[in-house]
Amino acid sequence: MRKHVLLLFPKTGLDLKRVNLQMPMSLMCLAAPLEELGYRVTILDQRTEKDFFLKVKNLLADDTICAGISAMTGMQIRYALAIAKFIRENSRIPIVWGGIHPTLMAEQSIRNNCIDIIVRGEGEITFAELVRALSRGSSLDKIPGITWKDGAKIRANAERNFCDLDKLPPTSYDLVNVEKYVTAQVPGKNRSLDVYTSRGCPHSCSFCFNRSFNNSSWRRRDIDKVIFEIEWMVKKFHLDSVNINDDNFFVDIDRSHTFCKRLIDKKIPLAWGCQGVRIDSLEKVDFDLLQRSGCKHLYMGIESGSEKIIQYIRKGITLNQIKNIVHKFSSSGIIAHYNFMVGYPIEAETELHETIELVNYIMRVDPKAYFSSFHIITPYPGTEFYRLSQQHGFIPPQKLEEWSNIRWEYEQVPWIPAHMRKTVFNLTLLTYFIDRKGLDKTKNNLLLRIITKVYMAFAKIHWKHKQFKFCPEFRLLNRLVNYKMSREIRNLASS
Q1: Cβ–Cβ under 8 Å, residues 140 and 118
Q2: Looking at residue 332, which CATH number applies to its domain?
């Protein structure tokens, strides 16, 4: 019986070593049940592996059951398709895709000639059952959660229920070189890795994939198991910090407080930060407890400074709530990291100005605050905004490969008025440099740190004088980024 499974994580487009590379956690979680069943698993990450395709070819041996590929909407699809094509040309093993995009666009994705099976949703249990069936030559028609090709027919099996996170085996950290993913994610610290404590989010923001992918549900891991994993990670990988990479960490405030108390009681020498935080959740949070437990930063989605826009995207918060939380952060030692989006169909210059003014307000009240670079809102599959965007001229890609052109940084959505395009586009670049977050993230990369310092000076001038339409130095930066992307694409085409 064949006993080997190959799992592959494609490049995402702009992958910066020691800056923004996160562990291929989806594949590491996927591998754990397979190892428990006695299968040998290899994970290859295209972002970090030299001679990637040569290594893939060498692993396409007779005992390999299948190749699993993870893919998100955007450039990663282009790389994933190139990998799948390479496997198809060098082997007859089944090619299995999983991840957010193949799940939400399964019917379209499975039509691609380089895909045989799609694992929809959470893959740990589904993929383990699939591998066992493939290794035995069994039928696939009774496996919930897959879309597959049965000869010339396409079949979509029944949905699979969400799994109990506490019944899953420990994440397979031993299958990757963890050192390649250690970054300075937490302010003031140098060695951070991601950890997850829950999945999903119960809220209904119109732009978020969670409503479809997780059915607006939220599921938690046992806090003591999370603490045990963190303790082990700190000792094993010599970490000084961890970043909680949940969709929404503060759904259960009592649980979040318990997490903090456990860290204090255990006296773990650790700082921590957290993504997936809602403003309204923080109204009930004990900031003093957070700080005593080692919390250094929290990422929050504000999305806009306009009440009109906030209501339009069903965010469920108000400007008064935002401002109250800003004041809480200003009197604490925790760094708030605010996320904004621009380019909404109903966003005129007035609403854009309100967002800029909210950023200015936050800067005045809490000068240590960070801001994510403004993202242009993108109609991702499976979101309510995907449907709404089509009413404003967005034409969805008709083939899987066309989705690789969707780039969240620079997506040119058709509804942005011509007179606002330069401003919106320049703001996506300029806002990366209006605070010190770039210096924190690039402390392990000297060249990028120097570039960041130079552009911070330009950004402060533009922001102070509200010069957003004419930013030639940021256009140059964009050309450099596009050059890197174009070179990657040319290399991909010739591989």
Answers
A1: no
A2: 3.80.30.20
Query: How many domains would you assign to the chain?
Result: 3
Q: What's this model's pTM, rounded to 2 decimal places?
A: 0.91
Backbone phi, psi, residue 59, to 5°: -95, -5
- Domain check: are 276 and 310 in the same one? yes
Exposure of 409 in the CB half-sphere (CA atoms within 13 A):
15
Q: Tell me which DSSP letter residue 183 carries.
A: B
Averaged pLDDT score across all residues of the chain = 92
Rounded CA gap, 346 and 309, in Å?
Answer: 8
> Interior CA angle at 19 toward 14 and 23, to 5°?
85
* Buried/exposed 112-142: b ≥16 CB within 10 Å, e otherwise: bebbbbbbbbbbbbbbbbbbbbbbeeeebee
The answer to whether residue 423 is domain-embedded is yes
pLDDT tens, residue by residue, 450-464: 888 888 898 899 999
Write out the residue range of the structural domain in which residue 314 sits.
182-377
User: In whole angstroms, what is the distance from residue 128 CA to residue 172 CA?
Assistant: 14
Given a contact cutoff of 8 angstroms between Cβ atoms, the answer to whether 278 and 300 are in contact is: yes
Q: How far apart are CA 437 and CA 331, in angstroms?
A: 20
CB atoms within 10 A of CB 59: 17
- Report the DSSP beta bridge partners of residue 303: 340
